[in-house]
UniProtKB/TrEMBL annotation:
The keyword ATP-binding does not apply. Keywords: Iron, Iron-sulfur, Metal-binding, S-adenosyl-L-methionine. Residues 65-292 form the Elp3/MiaA/NifB-like radical SAM core domain. Pfam families: Radical_SAM (PF04055). This is Putative DNA modification/repair radical SAM protein. It comes from Novosphingobium hassiacum. It comes from the Bacteria. SUPFAM superfamilies: Radical SAM enzymes, RuvA domain 2-like. One of its GO terms (molecular function) is iron-sulfur cluster binding. Its cofactor is [4Fe-4S] cluster.
Amino acid sequence: MSQTAIIAPKTILERLEILADAAKYDASCASSGTTKRSSAGGKGIGSTEGMGICHAYAPDGRCISLLKILLTNHCVFDCHYCINRKSSNTRRARFTPQEVVDLTLSFYRRNYIEGLFLSSGIVKSSSNTMEQLIEVARILREEHDFRGYIHLKTIPEADPELVARAGLYADRVSINVELPTVAGLTRLAPDKSATQIEGAMTSLKDSIVEAKDARKRFRNAPKFAPAGQSTQMIVGADAATDSDIVGRASTLYGSFGLRRVYYSAFSPIPDASAVLPLKRPPLMREHRLYQSDWLMRFYGYAPHEVQQAAGADGMLPLDIDPKLAWALQFRGDFPVDVNRAPRERLLRVPGLGVRAVNALIAARRQRRLHLADVGKLTVSVAKVRPFIIAEDWRPLLLTDRADLQALIAPKRSEQLELFAS
């Protein structure tokens, strides 16, 4: 059945149910990096500092709740992996820009949310849809003085001037690269162009840099996407390996100055195309890719080093995290002396996170550190012991044991720890 044959629900609640559910497939709605704004002492509405239902976490630990919806799930594109593709047999719905504004303000006043994440299927044309997305943000900012967080999903096929306007109203803008490889994009999203996507991301990057430079020179220069831009890759819909994905993510960070790359495990959809896998990839694969992302961003690992943690097939192990996998392959770099080693070497010790390493460096200025001191800063001292030297501890032959992985690998229920940081 085509989407035009399905009658759209009429009530706001029915449409909200459909369009909020359709938005769940987009993972790139975290709120890190936003400018702190408050309506305290003024006439504005909204804040990025209030309390509410937590949906996204900033790096400093703040929780920011977002109304996450699509403007519409009608779409003229036919991406094989998308539940909203034009050939999909799904219920369709649409909001007007004013209805999204009213919903956002209504939810904010009830303390349900602190901001808005807005995306959309493509209706009529990419530019027409982009205009409607921008209109939502414009009304919120200019007519209601809304000071909460706004994340707009921009459309690379739209007029570049429209994409640029989005950054004047949104805290963060994002363009999904969709798939890790050009071959995968060509095969599964025939209406999309990798060149066009990267061109739009380059334009956004240039606008962000120019705005930052202008703010340094002119106090009243307008802000442009102060929380930067992000993107998302779908994992498991094509034949890309984890090594391919890590390499692609590194290129995206370096080329476009992205704040985040998000990974979304492919999920089978109703009436799926025959070219798609029948099963979704393990959710642990998505988690391992996030861990590898952390290694590159916060632990000083080069992309090729993270790729070395993958097996011969290019896939990261599912039973151990990539940091431990790398350490087991390069045991010659261990053990590391916690009383002498520089910060960059301590960050490579499995089981020690950034906060633990910072605490160790601060503590060793006052005294020599024992194994018990290290144990207080990690979830599993058994995981750390083979890779460190302390005042009262040397691993001797433990680091070289053939069964070391079996001895220290976390139990299945413990797998979701992120380097015990």
